[in-house]
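User: I'm curious whether this sequence folds into something compact or stays loose and floppy. Could you predict its structure so I can see for myself?
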Amino acid sequence: MAEANKKDLNLEKVVTPGQLVRKRFMRNKLAIVGVCILIGMFIFSFVGPLFSPYGEYTLFYTAADGAHRLSSLSGHHVRCKDTEKDIDGGSQEARQMLR
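Assistant: Here's the prediction. I'll summarize afterward.
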């Protein structure tokens, strides 16, 4: 009987590595704040569009703004890497896209 009591006294609580990590993490207040901010950003990325007055395809510039951007390219020759064709900054095709 005395040996059984000794064995009970010598038992230690087994702590897994995951429990150690969680315990250390919970002690670090800045880490908890960071995780809360990340979770908030993640949730808002899905909930935010419900409150936004703008749609997916709303443009924040007018055709005049686009024409001004293209006019700064006139006289310059730009080569498009994706299509491997030459694009003139003031071309008729670009002007039609803005209308």
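Summary: The CA atoms of residues 36 and 60 lie 32 Å apart. The chain is about 60% helix and 10% strand.
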